[in-house]
């Protein structure tokens, strides 16, 4: 928001009213939308009011009547035309870049997910069957570029620092061809050089840096809830490519371009029933995986029901024994013959027998095929 205030002020100073409208209205709205997406627990009212106040001040020179009306709705005294331009603090460029990285990465992950769900088309199978929707995404992050890319970037940076430009690709190709460490990767070298050259035109010498200005993995980990929500998965894992589990393909990714892998955690279907009359909450069939907590299950129920605003308000109940499961439910006593599942309990799954158990401490109980959920 501070950056947009600064940019809009500069555009007004230069009489660039179209640009001022772009940054002061359209891009400010995009900033608000991004904040709304990331604020899964709700937006902060004081910050929202601050946003409205700042935006009407930015727009007051070009649409004073609307700005004046909103100014009065905010309960401000006097005319907006006499108000001072909003004062802002210093712009944290690193945080802005980290935010842009997060949004670009999330968009890239969504595109990959769409491709993944379409299945792999082959000559023999041009219309593959639909792929099961994944519930786990693993994001592989590189701490540095692969060795051969580091060699290419270091060489390009030396040329750029010497003459403030790069030699032709033909010259670079000849130079790289003589390097012993690059002979194995020559098919990949020149496409990488061309891609880096294009980045150089946009970002300057920063395109030749071997690391990012911010901690890529930390940004992703701090926004796991947002990534899980936007990708509609239950679990997001962030790992480094130097992990022993990483394959050669994963190790080829570079800083700023993480490798994403979708997978489906196996589990057993359970029916989650709400027996409370006249509340509009429907039964749900959810897959329970080994190690799922009560918190995870309640979050999934809440996500599937717009009526439930707080997952922590959901209680899970199991039948006290499986014979009772076959009895007719008591209309006005939804918890009769049932035991509440503790908040710290963990679900254990036997995939071979297709059974689900709830474990609380050392005790493990078969929950049968149905669990009751009640909103309190």
Automatic annotation (TrEMBL):
Domain Leucine--tRNA ligase ubiquitin-like residue range list: 264-375
GO biological process: leucyl-tRNA aminoacylation
Leucine--tRNA ligase RagD-binding domain segment(s): 141-213
Keyword annotations of the record: Aminoacyl-tRNA synthetase, ATP-binding, Ligase, Nucleotide-binding, Protein biosynthesis
GO MF entries: ATP binding; leucine-tRNA ligase activity
Pfam assignment, any one: ULD_3
Claim: Aminoacyl-tRNA synthetase is one of the keywords in the record: yes
The Methionyl/Valyl/Leucyl/Isoleucyl-tRNA synthetase anticodon-binding domain, residue ranges: 4-105
Family: Belongs to the class-I aminoacyl-tRNA synthetase family.
Stated name of the protein: Leucyl-tRNA synthetase
Organism the protein comes from: Acanthoscelides obtectus (Bean weevil)
């Amino acid at each position: 928001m501070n950056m947009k205030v600064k940019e809009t002020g500069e555009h007004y100073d230069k009489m660039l009213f179209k640009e001022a409208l772009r940054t002061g209205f359209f891009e400010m709205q995009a900033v608000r939308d991004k904040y709304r997406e990331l604020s899964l627990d709700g937006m902060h009212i004081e910050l929202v009011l601050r946003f409205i106040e700042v935006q009407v001040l930015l727009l007051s020179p070009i649409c004073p009547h609307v700005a004046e009306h909103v100014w009065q709705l905010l309960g401000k005294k006097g005319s907006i035309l006499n108000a001072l331009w909003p004062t802002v603090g210093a712009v944290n460029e690193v945080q802005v870049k980290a935010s842009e990285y997060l949004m670009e990465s999330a968009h890239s992950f969504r595109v990959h997910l769409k491709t993944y769900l379409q299945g792999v088309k082959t000559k023999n199978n041009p219309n593959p069957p639909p792929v099961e929707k994944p519930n786990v995404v693993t994001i592989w992050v590189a701490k540095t570029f692969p060795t051969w890319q580091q060699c290419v970037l270091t060489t390009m940076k030396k040329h750029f620092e010497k003459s403030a430009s790069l030699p032709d690709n033909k010259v670079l190709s000849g130079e790289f061809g003589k390097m012993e460490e690059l002979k194995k990767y020559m098919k990949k070298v020149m496409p990488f050089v061309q891609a880096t050259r294009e980045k150089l035109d946009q970002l300057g010498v920063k395109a030749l840096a071997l690391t990012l200005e911010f901690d890529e993995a930390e940004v992703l980990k701090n926004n796991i809830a947002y990534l899980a929500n936007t990708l509609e998965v239950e679990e997001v894992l962030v790992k480094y490519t130097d992990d022993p589990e990483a394959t050669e393909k994963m190790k080829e990714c570079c800083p700023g371009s993480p490798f994403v892998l979708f997978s489906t955690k196996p589990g057993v279907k359970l029916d989650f029933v709400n027996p409370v009359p006249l509340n509009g909450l429907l039964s749900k069939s959810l897959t329970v995986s080994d190690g799922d907590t009560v918190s995870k299950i309640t979050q999934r129920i809440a996500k599937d029901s717009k009526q439930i605003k707080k997952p922590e308000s959901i209680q899970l109940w199991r039948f006290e024994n499986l014979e009772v499961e076959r009895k007719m439910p008591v209309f006005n006593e939804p918890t009769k013959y049932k035991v509440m599942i503790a908040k710290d309990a963990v679900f254990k799954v036997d995939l071979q027998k297709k059974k689900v158990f709830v474990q609380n401490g050392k005790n493990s109980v078969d929950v049968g095929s149905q669990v009751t959920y009640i909103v309190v």
